[in-house]
């Protein structure tokens, strides 16, 4: 999995020339800084590494499949992805004193929201589901996610629980 993600990162750095605006760049820069901080919290580093990988994947796929899309679209997706991860982290913290089956249910809400809302319909399931399929990952989400739809889906499911 790491080889694939490193390959994606290298491809992004050397071959992709996207004029993303401030939101995408700010989220990616902050996540990369946190993920590479040797003294940082290991759990936060994992969340931020997912953000970097998801943003890189999104930029590459947009360049390939949506070359006419605007940087604003990329910014909106990046912003929604960041909010999705933050909402997920908040719910993980909020449910830490709940029974294990309830915590698992909350995690599945986010997993399903990510998986059920693809953006590119990428057939490369090994890559797309590399985090999703990894039982040790804290961010078991699909890289191929329409984050704007996913956060709405997760929020609606969470609202039903209240």
Question: Can you tell me about this structure?
Answer:
There is one protein chain. With 162 residues, the protein is mainly α. It is built from seven helices and no strands. It has helices spanning 2-15, 22-35, 42-65, 71-94, 100-115, 125-128, 147-161. It is globular, with a radius of gyration of 15 Å. Residues 5-20 have low confidence and may be disordered.
What structural class do you assign from the helix and strand content? Answer: mainly alpha
Counting DSSP H or I runs of 4 or more residues, the number of helices is 7
Query: Whole-number radius of gyration?
Result: 15 Å
- Poorly predicted runs are 5-20
| Major β-sheet annotation | none
Instruction: Report helical residue fraction.
Output: 55-70%
Overall 3D shape: globular
* Distance between the ends: 37 Å
Residue fraction in strands: under 5%
Report the strand count: 0
N-to-C SSE string, H for helix and E for strand: HHHHHHH
Mean pLDDT figure: 89
